[in-house]
Design goal:
It is a single chain. The protein is of the alpha+beta class. The protein folds into three domains: 107 residues, PAS domain (Beta-Lactamase, 2-Layer Sandwich), CATH 3.30.450.20; 72 residues; 159 residues, Heat Shock Protein 90. Helices cover 43% and strands 29% of the residues. The chain contains eleven helices and 13 strands. Strands 7, 9, 10, 11, 12 and 13 form a six-stranded mixed sheet that branches. Strands 2-1-5-4-3 form a five-stranded antiparallel sheet. Strands 6-8 form a two-stranded antiparallel ribbon. α9 packs antiparallel against α11. The longest helix has 48 residues. The chain is elongated and about 105 Å long. The C terminus is likely disordered.
């Protein structure tokens, strides 16, 4: 029963025997150490806690022998390919006055920072979206009146030169109307059905290949084991197409774009924990995004191109949000990655504890 409870806790829980050999590790711990419980159980604590901070072991053993808990913050653990920063809490357990086991809880600092950054990003985007939608509604009403007056005036005029001016007013009104509709964002709820994400990505790839006349390589790196997910096919096509088009425009006449899919397990999005999440990476070799734009690229009307409207990424984020997902971006010259996270089964998401 206790194991079932621990299995659903987001923090890594490890139980060591009196010789400090691992007896139990929960799924969050398996993710943290990127290894299975079957392989890890029996390992000595020194093997698991590979760190340059060697004094932690001496302090830990000393505290445990004195039946004192230990709390250590921002401990850096070395893993196979990288390192992870965690907050450690170790509690000695005793029975009949004898030290028997040690319970250790590890909280990844990196993940908490990511959740905090994600929540701040979504809050800012929601506020910005509300302001823009309100502004767009205020503009649409007089814009419709302006277009109607121009149409009536066009019917009364006989001079072709004067009619040319009214036609410009009508055309520009239509252009602004289209811009307002884009600023208002998607106005239809997602029509979700079971689909294969690679069908969506292949449609996007085909559309971009037809549109692009430059020497751009468009590569794919798919994980064929990804299961189907519930989503609106047209909305996903639009969201991903906006991002890939941005990559094409950023690259210019020559470069490479890679669309990659992978599975992520036990991921938290908007404080909801999802057992399975598909990660779609759109990677380009363009010049990168200016650092001063990185925190604002998903805001409406923010763009690094003179001819851009700054609505493509904002609309993409809104559409992905409707699917309980999220878009993140990392960029440096020659390597920009937009990562789309979509829960495979959002209906069964577990609230974050």
């Amino acid at each position: 029963m206790h194991n079932k409870i621990l299995d659903h806790i987001n923090e890594a829980i490890l139980l060591f025997d009196s010789d400090l050999r691992l007896r139990y590790i929960n799924p969050a711990g398996e993710i943290l150490f990127t290894d299975s419980e079957k392989h890890l159980v029996g390992s000595p604590i020194q093997k698991l806690f590979k760190t340059s901070q060697t004094l932690i072991f001496d302090d830990l053993v000393k505290r445990l022998k004195q039946y004192e808990p230990l709390v250590d913050r921002e401990l850096i653990l070395d893993r196979l390919n990288n390192s992870v920063t965690v907050n450690l809490s170790a509690t000695p357990l005793q029975e009949n006055g004898t030290f028997t086991e040690t319970l250790i809880e590890l909280q990844p600092v990196d993940r908490h920072l990511r959740i905090s950054r994600e929540e701040q990003l979504l809050a800012q985007q929601n506020t910005s979206r509300m302001l823009v939608r309100g502004l767009a509604h205020e503009i649409k009403n007089p814009l419709g009146g302006l277009r109607g007056a121009a149409q009536l005036l066009d019917l009364e005029l006989t001079d072709p030169e004067l009619k040319e001016y009214t036609q410009i007013i009508i055309a520009e009104s239509d252009r602004l109307q289209d811009l307002m509709d884009k600023m208002l964002g998607p106005n239809k709820p997602a029509q979700k059905s079971s689909l294969n994400i690679h069908e969506v990505l292949e449609r996007v790839r085909q559309l971009v290949a037809v549109e692009s006349t430059s020497q751009i390589q468009l590569n794919t790196d798919y994980d064929p084991s990804i299961p189907e997910l519930m989503a609106d096919k047209n909305q996903l096509i639009q969201a991903i197409l906006n991002i890939v088009r941005n990559a094409v425009q950023a690259i210019g006449s020559q470069g490479k774009i890679t669309i990659r899919t992978r599975i992520k397990r036990h991921m938290t999005i908007s404080r909801k924990r999802h057992k399975l999440t598909v990660k779609i990476d759109i990677i380009d070799t363009g010049p990168g995004i200016a650092p001063e734009l990185m925190e604002r690229i998903f805001y409406p009307m923010i763009t690094g191109r003179a001819e851009g409207t700054g609505l493509g990424l904002s609309i993409a984020q809104s559409l992905i949000n409707q699917h309980n997902g999220l878009i993140e971006c990392e960029s440096e010259p020659g390597h920009t990655v937009f990562s789309i996270f979509l829960p495979i089964n959002p209906a069964k998401a577990e609230p974050r504890r």
